[in-house]
Queue: 4 jobs
Job 1
Amino acid sequence: MVKAGNYDAPDGLYYSREHEWVKLEGKLARVGITDYAQNKLGDVVYVELPEVGKQVKQVTEQKTKEMELGAVESIKAVSAVYSPLSGAIKETNAALQERPELINTSPYNEGWICVLDASALETELKQLIDAKAYAEYLKKL
Amino acid sequence: MSYQQARWVEPLIFELSKPGRVGWTLPEKPRERINVPKELLREKLELPELSEPEVVRHYTRLSQMNYGVDSGFYPLGSCTMKYNPKVCEELAALEAANYIHPHQAEETVQGALELMYMLERCLTEIAGVARVSLQTSAGAHGEFVAMLITRAYHKSKRDDKRNQVIVPDSAHGTNPASAAMAGYDVVTVPSNARGRVDLDALKATVSERTAALMLTNPNTLGLFEDQIIEIAKVVHDAGGLLFYDGANLNGILGRTRPGDMGFDIVHFNLHKTFATPHGGGGPGAGPIGVQKELEKFLPVPLVEYDKKKGRYYFDYDRPHSIGKIKGFYGNFGVLVKAYVYLLLMGGEGLSEVTEAAVLNANYIMRKLLGVDGYELKFNPSDPCKHEVVFSAEPLKRMTGIGAHFVAKRLLDFGMHAPTYYFPPIVPEALMIEPTESESKEELDRFVEALRTIAEEAKSDPDKVCSAPTATAIGRLDEVKASRQPILSWRAYRKSAKG
């Protein structure tokens, strides 16, 4: 576990600069938002999940709709969740519909958003950073 | 300094109801029988039953527990909560304005048509556009219709590749929503370190797929987009249109015009810029203006003047129009208030409105820059326009108390909170817009309150965190309200049973 200020960033995960995490599970990738992201959002009241089967693209600086994995709504704001990898949505976390607060209480476990069947895993992983680099990145924000 | 809002233990009007109690007696038998189909008839209406004084007292008490621009300072950034002169209300309530019917023959409402005609002329002059439709009934409605006009324009050029609308990352949420409603994909363009649209990023974003760029100027940070001429050129060279969101028109009114900056479509919030009341869901008006080339797409009808006959009329004969977008001709009462305001101020007066609004915002900016706990994220040496976005991040770092708590504590000082946590590109944002209506003493009181709160956050954090305590209602459970909203009597009863 890496600490960046008050925020957790577990080792072994990959991170995007848009504050999503990726956990590799064989050929699949589990995705959620980071502790930093949930903290900045505040209490989450609604999560818009992507449709299973939807094709998404890895997020770049020029963000488009094809990179969105849905949205997280808190009492502060509605934020799009961007896909850290390209691929097809395999599964979504239905528990979030009843209990959106799982994103706040357990961002890295129970608060996962979806599982992706990644289509270009090897090349795209290079765009993501590890826990240590993510903690460094947070310090500069 | 002490403030205490009225605090009544007031039940809901449904809870005050007693069967059979009335404030009005209806004739026992209707004068005329109307044949209502049986399946539409109801036996019971389930309306509350009360006497007239009970109803009056109930709503008087509720109004005493309310807060508005008539009760105090209301620096809600981006909303321009300026004072609404009472004479505008008085004139809009006159029989000639209030008792006319949209089905009346045109020759009997010539005055009303003339007013709409003249208001349109005023707005075209203010914005630097060719024509204006007064029908659109709110700001977001104006944005949406602007996107429909954009679509009609590209379609008329048989250009069907354009499916993207660009919005800056500081834009109001209604911009991407309006674009999406009109069927466009939304592309976000980032702000640069100066808090303006990043011109290079914009250049990289525009393409043959760009339908329009939606922009406010001054932007949502209260800063003037000083590269607007270059921005307009980039968008126009790519074949897109430039839409002006009128949210911040109070920052340039009478000093410069969106049309002169290169905007093709402009919308106005009469309730922000021209002192009509904010609707709170009631009737509103968000007129929309366009340049010559787009005129033919405006909604029907437009008010025209027949010089030969010396009379005003509605022109429906506009074959390229996007059609009707609102019942009848918009919310006429709101238009009356805006027109009265325009006549009250006159051209010079409107320029002075902007001067005072900008001066007030800069006064607050300069004074608040010296207060520990608040900072500006973009060029503090730049003057702001009519609003300024501070960050309470230093205070949060020092004390753990952020913008949300500061805003709640301000209510105890008898002031409305600024907009907070918006725009999202500023952490712990406090978006302050004093408007031209306020005195120096009021502005001083506001800055003093923010200074006091910053000190309290260090010395007595519990006081700040438990605020507000001087208001009719204390801290609301916003999370519960969002997760389990109960918005009607029926839903309330259901939840109480459940």
Job 2
Amino acid sequence: MSALKSVVRLLAVPALLVAVWWTATEGSTDYFWPPLRTIVGTFDDTWFHGRLTSDVLPSLLRLVAGYLLALVLGIGAGVAIGSSRTLRAVLEPVLEFFRAIPPPVLVPILMLFAGIGDGMKILVIVTGCVWPVLLNTVEGVRALDEVLRDTARSYRLRRGSRLVHLVLPGASPQIAAGARQALSVGIILMVISEMFAASEGVGFTIIQFQRTFAIPQMWTGVILLGVIGVALSALFHLAEARVLRWYTGLRRAQREG
Amino acid sequence: MTMTTADTGTMLEVRHLKKVFQGRGRTVEAVGDLTFKVKAGELVCVVGPSGAGKTTLLKCVAGLLDSTSGEVLLEGRAVTGPPPGMAVVFQEYGRSLFPWMTVRQNIELPLKEKKVPKAERQRLVREALAAVGLSDAADAHPWQLSGGMQQRVAIARAVAYEPHILLMDEPFAAVDAQTRAELEDLVRSLWKRLGVTVLFITHDIDESVYLAERVIVLSSSPTEVLADVAIDLPAERDQLGTRSLPRFAELRAEVYRLVQQAKDGERPSTIGKVAR
Amino acid sequence: MTGRRNGPAPAWLLGGLGLAGLIVLGELVPRSGLVERRYLPPVSSMLSALADQAAAGEFWQALGETLRGWAIGLAIAMVAGVVLGVVIGWVPLLQAALNSTIEFLRPIPSVALIPLAVLLYGTEPRSTLLLVVYASFWQVLVQVLYGVRDVDPVARDTARSYRFRLLTAARTVIWPTALPYVMTGFRLGAAVALILEITGELVIGSPGLGRQIAVAQNSNAVSAMYALIIVVGLIGVAVNVVARAVERRALRWHPSIRTEAAV
């Protein structure tokens, strides 16, 4: 019964919040705050008759493409920079600067280079997501355990297998922390890049609703974005728990030890 | 697994080894001038007061650290990086095993790297685990095991690697007394069975006398060899019997006296004068 | 600690070299025609555009508006995050009930609120403020919750058994333990607040540097756009450096040595 209990615990307050929203807006005539009943009623009409494939899917595909590309680039560059003390020292202020630039301001720059197509939007996501991954990877590689490094060297592990068996798994908890930050940045950029210039996509559609004062539809869009955020973060947690099972076990053992 | 060295059966030779660390604005001479030899198949313990540069010595011998001057020869060849045919067991067992791998994968990885064929690899892993008494733990992760068991895994990994020389850096400093005694007997029995050369670094005088055929006593930093004591105890040793032998007590007292002298800053030159 | 004969070059020198290299590259690449100048003007023309900007009052006004929005938003998020974090973290029932809710609400992207903010407040600063507060609030709240959870159970039970009022407990038991976490929350929240402040200005058009960037973009003033982005980046660096310094300062006396909590 504990599974049921935890489900109840998980959903009790969110359900309560929804109920409060529902009753508070019931019979609302405020133009900006339509009854939740109306919003839910429009949801199906708004999204499930074409927009799912014409708007939501392209947005998500761009997000996935940009995010994966950023992971590859960030981890690759992060391993290279993290492995060299000199390179790290040379690049630290430069990286510090690029990290501090709020990612959305990249949109106007990248529009110059890549126009307003899919390429630009994916590029925006890549350039925004790459920093947290890169910086965390550098940190993770730098902090690799000295003894573990010596062990790998004394058993004469070659460069390639040192990367696969030592560096990447050793840095993986940090890389995961960076990837988690990058995911929320990615979602933001997915939406922002479409708010600037687009003819399709979730972000574009929601702004269209807002501009045309299709208020209940706009609300469904806000809710949909929330659901996408929650769902992606849940997916990420699942993947992370799988990859880092050894790490959670290790941490627990250390705490109890 | 016995060695056939060209010269007089010398496995390891350390000649005038010197290691100076250069920090910002200050230099530390960790190892001053070390010279000693280890014959093939010997079990030699190195003891010295804490801060005597024992770990630095081990890292230089293991090729993990470049020496400032002097040289280390393993089987007649100069050591410039980690040489083949050598395995190291570190003190920090918790940090020398890959936590993301199972016990089996930990032992197998160096063998894969050596391109040992799969069937052979599996045999070596099985035998090594049996030798350290951990046959049931092959699929566990290291952190699921106790400290003593983790160190057994590290030893199994070293054994499966079939090294000509096994370096051990205070391997039992962080386990409890009971486990420690068991592990000491394990090292003795593996050494006798496999005929591998062992260089065992410790700060524990009892341990060095109990384990070794020869004990090298280091001076305090900058390190030199203060004395080289032959341990003429019977080859068959056990924790109770051997440790209650009068000869054990004598040897222990001698090594103890030497380590005390080392702590007092005694150097080989002054010892010589005292002896004369 | 590989004892090199002549010690490695100091980090600041290498870092300076890196920055100099970036500037030289930024000057030469557009000049060589490798990248078109109307996409990436040379650094020198960005700098002269920056000088033009600095001469105009508009720039300074925008800078002030950005900083004000950032500071107000961060302050609100800090107060709300700390107060709610302490209350939720201290009362077991609340914590049990709300932990999952927080995990549930946190991933809702702040940009989802943009249309709502525009609808409610138009291009007033308040609409951007809403985004800033929302996004940085979660950063602070989560860190404060970690901090309260970290309070020594014995101290916690002692406070409970003597029936300390919440305020007393907060002052004597919770605050000292949670302070490092609050500071981490401050650092993370400060960075996020700046991102959302600029984003809001850029997308919604509320006053500030973000809007100036949008204006420069629309009027094809590419050098000015780059100059403004550099300024924004430098503000970001300053925010990070100051927040880290504040964090370190607050922690200097603190006995707890801990690795950074996961974000």
Job 3
Amino acid sequence: MNTEVKIAGETFKNPVMTASGTFGSGMEYSDFVDLNKLGAVVTKGVANVPWEGNPTPRVAEVYGGMLNAIGLQNPGIDVFLERDIPFLQNYDTNVIVNVCGKTVADYLEVVERLSDAPVAMLEINVSCPNVKEGAIAFGQKADSLYDITSQIKKKAKQPVIMKLSPNVTDITEMAKAAEAAGADALSMINTITGMKIDIHKKRFVLANKTGGMSGPAIKPVAVRMVYQTAQAVQIPIIGMGGIGSAEDAIEFLLAGASAVAVGAMNFVNPYATVEVVEGIEAYMKQYDIENVTDLIGAVE
Amino acid sequence: MTRKKKVTATVVSQKQIGEQIFDLWLETKLSKNAHPGQFVGVYPHNESTLLPRPISICEVDRAKGRLRLVYRVAGKGTAEFAACKAGDTLDLLGVLGNGFPIDKAKGKKIFLMGGGIGIPPMLELAKTLDGKKQILLGYRNKELFLEEDLAEYGDVYVATEDGSVGTKGNVMDIINAYSLQADMIMACGPMPMLRAIKKYAGEQGIPAYISLEERMACGVGACLGCVCKTAGVDSHSHVHNARICTEGPVFEAGEVDI
């Protein structure tokens, strides 16, 4: 049985990754899971300088999911290179660094600082709905997405994944723009912008008023978007949105994702990532599937 | 640090001990390494309510391998817990957080101050602390809970908001009413109470260790949902935001901006 997948020339021992922002740099979940068993650890977004993030409350539960408006709190690239990268080097797994910024120059600075780091791929966050500058502003218009993607591609030493926002009229237009600009792969979907109101206090539950929705409730939307995008572009897709089990992950693979990421469900089941790996293997055995890649886009 | 785990615990007993307040004993191996001021995440079975509910540890019975949680029903998740009966199971994430620095209290004259649903963690703290304990408890009304358990470990003073029992007012009013003094405070309760304690401790020049609360998601320091403003640069993100679930929930009052 072969669970290996290749994305932009990089080999992953299996198609299971962590979704950025839900797993730190792996440290916090290393009590629960053996990081060596994962296809990749995708880190929390890192910027050129430390970011404080948003005021609290930053998280709220909603039916079958949650909202977050963390606002990309992160220690900045200096601390990340000194602390998080060496930690991840202790493990036999690929490292994908999620990169965020307020301006194109911010992104480019992080990308350049990562040039010589032992990092398999870069995931560019142009889809966080919770910060006022940068992020989603680059990911909601095809021309600005094209522009930032091509600028990053010029500087990046590693293959570049563009992480797409579902908060657009037609996600395939964004996917095509990223592909045309040279993106090596796509991650999708980031969170869906949502809101929750406390009817007793007549106040927004999140200090930021809006937050990004994640969790099982968004999975059908994500599967649909992955399927549509897989029909529209040639580059590989890393699928995510509510994945908590192998069954969920296999849906994404069948829809056309080459790999998957577990996000909010890490909070529900800290062992979820490894259970998804094992569950995919069990499914392959059950249906006598030799290569996991046979599942990619295999929906009929 | 002990490794965190997600485990299935068995309900030993549960009873209601106040208005929406429940007293739950669980059999779980997490009891082995649980310390006062730490908490566990309790998972609802209903999959529409996904996230673990952070609930402080009220008491630890290591010999029997049990944890006692005293909590208030605040929504769908805790309402589900309140319906649990002996023999039912609940999934727990734990043990989480730093806990109170009990070693620092050795031989000290100390106020343990609990307000409302901040009272439960005072019990294991009172059991464990080595010092002269004055236990100051604030309730809404005459529906007291845990005051008898606490009386076994120190001098208990009660305040009620409506004045129906003890001093009328809050825990700060107890200090004035009895002219009490201490050289250290450990406290858990609502934010206005913690702010008053921080101010008082500053004036008295004594350390106060306060347990904070915030909406949490992961409980293990990954999501950065439950931060509080800190005076110094925090160790994780190098900004001024410590993670309540990980660096906390107990902070020296002077370290946090509340």
Job 4
Amino acid sequence: MLRFILKRLGLALLVALTVSFISFSLLFLAGDPAIAIAGESANAKDIQAIRELYGFDRPMLVQYADWLWNALRFDFGQSYYFKLPVADLIAERLSVTMTLGVCGILFALLTAVPLGVIAAIRPNSLIDRIALFLSVAGQAMPSFWFGLILIVVFAIQLGWLPASGASSWQHFIMPTVVLGYYAMPAIMRLTRAGMLEVLSADYIRTARAKGAPEGRVLFKHALRNAIIPVVSLAAVQMGFMLGGSIVVESIFALHGAGYLAWESIGRNDLPTVQALILVFALFYIVFTFLADVLNAWLDPRMRSA
Amino acid sequence: MTEDPILSVRDLTLDIPTAGGMLHAVRGIDFDLHRGETLCIVGESGSGKSLTSLALMGLLAPKIQRSAARIDFDGTDLLKASRRQLRHLRGARMSMIFQEPMTSLNPAYTIGDQLAETLLLHRKVSRAQARARAVELLEKVGITAAESRLSQFPHQLSGGLRQRVMIAMALMCEPELIIADEPTTALDVTIQAQILRLLVDLQREMNMAMILITHDLGVVARVADKVAVMYAGELVETGPAEAIFRQPAHPYTRGLINCIPVPGRTERGARLGTIPGIVPSLVGEVTGCPFRRRCDQAVEACAHAIPLHRLDGDTHQLRCVHPDGHRHEEVTA
């Protein structure tokens, strides 16, 4: 198990390094960064001065090494727009995004897994139908529309919840539901399919033949095997929620990292975009790594992989 | 044999609803089994042997309909027993060994956990005691380095070892009845004999009643006290093993026994015996003898109700229109 973890950790570091290089090179793909900083009215002399000031005249690999070394110390440079350290900007915004992401994935898991399990135990029952309806609706409904409906009903009509902002926990209820409901259908259907398959397995019959009570058969013997693909999916969803919650963050005016990314792209604020891409990618890598470790704990056959 | 049987089954019937109508998979099974006895249920694939064993354990899929006049396990009426009562019997007093050793163990838990679980479910023992018992049984089923096996996972063991683990698991609580459903079918031929020998030795040592389901008559001849021959969901002939092999009465039983090649007597390269034809469909109403279309003794009466004949007193029973299984001239004339 320890060997497996070390191996995966090494792999994760390699992926992280690759991603850091790609996100660094984005700076150069987007055109001459010196022109972007100087603005359209600048003359050639100004641009040359900026090029030297920011070190754009050095070889690219040297610049990358420099940037990476700084990034390792959480120094991502200055934001062109805010004239503040990028690291501080992201740290401030990330707390909102993290809160939302964690609440969203918990909401998705806590609704999807029990529903999926019940639907698998009683296929074609009323609960199975309801679960199917909820998942189809969740997949078909765009997040922005669902978010607006919630605002209309719970903020405007009923006045129970605040419509925008992030100053109290009540502000996070509707965004959590919208974001979580987006991830819920896939998790639920994977749980249901996994449980259905596992429940017809021979070892489930063995567990019953031993005289194990039904609850133990379902949760100890079946769910542990059925949940394995769900763990991998949830890790990807979690990464997505942190990076891709831009829509939800804009609707509810939560100024999170997703919203910052969207703003910074518009403003050509490359150091911020670069750093955000790296941070989001690192989240994916960390969650995938955690999912791999959790899966290896759940399924011993994966430990040799 | 004045002692009460440990398992008594009367008129066990299993029906499976299918898209094409009701499938009458098992019809009117009767048998008694005493302590220490081995009953072999023989018959070809699809004759309902496995379903019968699952029905006795109460492990049938919910859609299969079970009915019987009686299923009595040592004074407990299994037809009326609550789920809780059945659960306390399963694994503790009646155990089952399945056909598929490769998939019958949970891949997520160690051998030790799965063995100990059986004991922990039914007895008030500590984990350490349960593990000690697991080691004891692994040694009993011939697994070397038993202690270190406890922390292994099923995927680290071969099929033969896994089946030994399954046998050990079934014996954890010293059951009075063990049902083995073709326990050696999925194994290599060389391993088959070992596993079977082991099972029979343990059954004798622990004085358990055993139902051994098989389609291997060679096995039956070696281990059975009683034989029940099953064809298309019916027991066509039941009786003491010795009588069945000495004087097989039902045409199907005779056909089966003729299929066994005998070393020295069957010529090299000679055609092996076969029974022509295929098993009838059991969907819809099933009348008469299910074997009649393949039977060389068939007469017109075979399409109607089939009487039960008793040979040699009470123990040897035959379900056939012919009182001794043979067509006589006056019947056809």
